[in-house]
Amino acid sequence: MKKNHNYMRRGILFAVAGAFLAVTAGAASAEYPDKPITFIVPYSPGGGSDQQARRLVPGLEKALGVKIRIVYKTGGGGAVGFSELWRSKADGYTISNVVVPNIVISAKGKGIGFKPGEFSYIGMTVRSVGALMVPKGSKYKSLAEFVAAAKANPGKLTVAGVGSTGAVNFGELAKILGIKTTYVPVSGGVGKMMPMLQGKHVDAGMTASNHAVKHRATVDTLVLAGPKSVGALPGVPNEPKWTYTTTWGVMAPPGTPADRVKILNAALNKATADPKITAMVTKIALAQMRQTPAEAQAYVEAAIKKFSK
């Protein structure tokens, strides 16, 4: 009897210990996040990614209860920052902008180690259609004048864009218009490209239409991508066959625990639901998005398939 009693006693102790470990493990998990989070911006200050991060950080800090530190890792059309995130610890304490299709196109570069489909996507937040712009005072007052000049002088007109992504997106428009120009790739993002355009160092520049809205005092927009007009750019014509759309979101390293991605997603969607944020993005011609992590993953996979060629 005494032997059986000891077995029962040990069983009870093991059960209590197991329950204690389960509770403490749950408590530890529930504590995330309990320290500052690093937010990587893979482009220069002043561009769309920087604007997105600064727009979101106050709401994310409020929802998560921790500080978020923005760091800039620029170069390679975003590839340097994306690679930094790829190498970061998958614990939910490092996140980054993701720009689609930039992450897909930049991954095709030589020596790139990251794979776009393997990041842990938290959610896309906004999107904007493409815009072809010229500096104020340009002799090209319309798309027709720009096209006529390009056809009369093949390869002479210069068009700036962000890295290899810009080359792909402008290449699509150039093919539709039947023109040949010289593409000028700019590393570091729109924050580096816009001054080149505003300073008339290039004939034209191409990026998302929200930048055309922000800088309309210094640039004129010749054409917008897609079939729909942009209310903040009245009178600007559209090219329905031009499919260029830029989407900004947030992602974490590959293998980040699903429960932490879920917490980050809830905080992200809460931040973007703020009426002040909604009004802000509408004013600068951005279309707001809210997604689950699964929807964000599917969105990127669709882009990978589209740009696989």
Task: Describe the protein's architecture and organization.
By secondary structure, the chain is of the alpha/beta class. It has 2 domains: about 35-125 and about 250-305, Bordetella uptake gene, domain 1 (D-Maltodextrin-Binding Protein, domain 2); about 130-240, 3-Layer(aba) Sandwich (D-Maltodextrin-Binding Protein, domain 2). The protein has helices spanning about 1-30, 50-65, 80-85, 100-105, 145-150, 165-175, 190-200, 210-215, 260-270, 275-285, 295-305, and strands at about 35-40, 70, 95-100, 120-135, 160, 180-185, 205-210, 220-225, 240, 245-250, 285-290. Strands 1, 2, 3, 4, 5, 6, 7, 8, 9, 10 and 11 form an 11-stranded mixed sheet that branches.
Give a brief outline of the structure.
The protein has helices spanning 2-30, 48-64, 79-87, 102-106, 143-152, 163-177, 190-198, 209-214, 258-272, 275-283, 293-306; strands at residues 37-41, 68-72, 94-100, 120-135, 158-162, 182-186, 204-208, 219-225, 238-239, 245-252, 287-288. The chain has 309 residues and is of the alpha/beta class.
Helices and strands in order, then pairings?
Layout: H1 2-30, E1 37-41, H2 48-64, E2 68-72, H3 79-87, E3 94-100, H4 102-106, E4 120-135, H5 143-152, E5 158-162, H6 163-177, E6 182-186, H7 190-198, E7 204-208, H8 209-214, E8 219-225, E9 238-239, E10 245-252, H9 258-272, H10 275-283, E11 287-288, H11 293-306
Parallel strand pairs: 1-2, 1-3, 5-6, 5-7, 8-9
Antiparallel strand pairs: 3-10, 4-7, 4-8, 4-10, 4-11
